Amino acid sequence: LREMEEELKYAPLPFRNQMMSKIRAYRRDLSMFQREMRSTDLGLGHGSQSDIKYGIFSTENEQSTNLQSQRVLLLQGTDSLNRASQSIERSHRIAAETDQIGTDIIEELGEQREQLERTKSRV
Asked: GO cellular component terms (predicted)?
């Protein structure tokens, strides 16, 4: 979670706001799970051996959670890049259409000018 918060310092503002709320939710969930784990008897008994096992499970779960959060961030980043690429493509299409419309208008104005000049010369 700390690494995610650090990454968010450099993220775009809309993405940052969205992810901060998710990180807060992750923190709440993590606190809830930690409280639940403390209050739950794993049936391992007390002693150094159970503490070692709990430590191993805790480390494995933490690594798994870190990997999952990194995957989520990667997928969200990819999704954001895809949306940006689609937006750029739409912008390029609109620019090309606008350019074509401008060219058509210039040609039409040229024809109208010729008509006006012919009409003026006849008058």
From this structure: cytosol; endoplasmic reticulum membrane; ER to Golgi transport vesicle membrane; Golgi apparatus; late endosome membrane; SNARE complex
Residue 42: pLDDT band with limits 50, 70, 90? low
**26: CB partners within 8 A, 6+ apart:** 1, 4, 69
Q: Where are the alpha helices (DSSP H) in 2-47?
A: 2-8, 13-39
User: How far is it, in rounded angstroms, from Cα 6 to Cα 2?
Assistant: 6
Give the integer Cα–Cα distance in Å for 18 and 25. Answer: 11
pLDDT in tens, 73-104: 888 888 888 888 888 888 888 988 999 999 99
Decide which of 84 and 52 is more confident: 84
DSSP annotation of 44: S
Distance of CA 59 to the CA centre of its chain: 28
Q: Over the range 89-117, which residues count as b (16 or more CB within 10 Å of their CB) and which as e?
A: eeeeeeeeeeeeeeeeeeeeeeeeeeeee
| Tokens read off for 80 | 């954001």
Q: How far apart are CA 58 and CA 79, in angstroms?
A: 31
